[in-house]
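In response to reviewer comment 3 from the previous cycle, which asked for concrete evidence that the modeling workflow produces usable outputs, we include below a single protein chain processed end to end. The sequence was submitted unchanged, and the resulting structure tokens are shown without manual editing.
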Amino acid sequence: MAAVTPVKYIWMNGELVEWDKATIHVLTHSLHYGGAVFEGARCYSTEQGPVVFRLDDHMKRWCRSARMLLMEPRYTEAQLAEAVRTTIRENDLPSCYIRPIMWRGYGEMGVDPTGAEVETAVAVWAWDAYLGPEALEKGISLGISSWRQRSANAMPPAIKASGSYLNSQLAKMEANQHGYGEAVLLNEAGKVCEGSGENLFIVRDGVLSTPPLSDGLLEGITRDSIMQIAADLDIPVVEESLVRSDLYIADEVFLSGSAAELTPVNSVDGRQIGDGKRGPITKQIQARFFDIVHGKVEGYDDWLAHI
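The workflow returned the following structure tokens.
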């Protein structure tokens, strides 16, 4: 389980609030109708102090999600980025997970949220590997879910909204019940989409492949980073539609995301991937990724926001 460890403060609507006092009303609109938009980001320790990985890109996506839901942010992207920095500094965390969230608050009820005030918060806490401390090396098992990912014309994947994760919850619980470490959702056309909270990559014959955004997946910031890292390492990378059998015959499979970082996969539906261990290309990209986020590689300074 991904338990939350309390810290001192949460930034809420422009001020720091004590952890236990950062509360909302039970009739908060987004609690009833799923209309919150959020981000997941990480802060890493470096020799130069804590840094947030691709902070500005997370703030842009967060505000973009809000505006697509006709939820006008109360703060600029720069102000929100500073709120993240402030929350990390005041909680004195050398590294942490970051959860910014925007929601429609108390005062209106019914499906139409017009009139409900937009509220904003940033929470941070210490959080190790999302899929388990051993998963980064030994990998996890995947199961193809019986649940399908939402249609792009039903719940747009470009909006990182809380309501969009209902089918992810169903898929994750199903995977756990069947003894898998994570689920893979297919879209309505039967193409591979993504994990319950991660993007997905495969390696075959030395080529790195990942589904295109048009197949209904979130435009992951870690996904984009991995594609750039692969190109910098002269590893061929393509976006192409995949079917479930492409996972079965892949040489390597891994998941990516701010929480999952870069987690190898050792089996899919009980079928061993490669030799059942982290593959060489996965290992190479993973090592470069962690060196970058810890400030050990030159040329990626614009990805690291110092606290």
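The chain has two domains: 9-125, 135-293. We consider this sufficient to address the reviewer's concern, and the full set will be provided in the supplementary archive.
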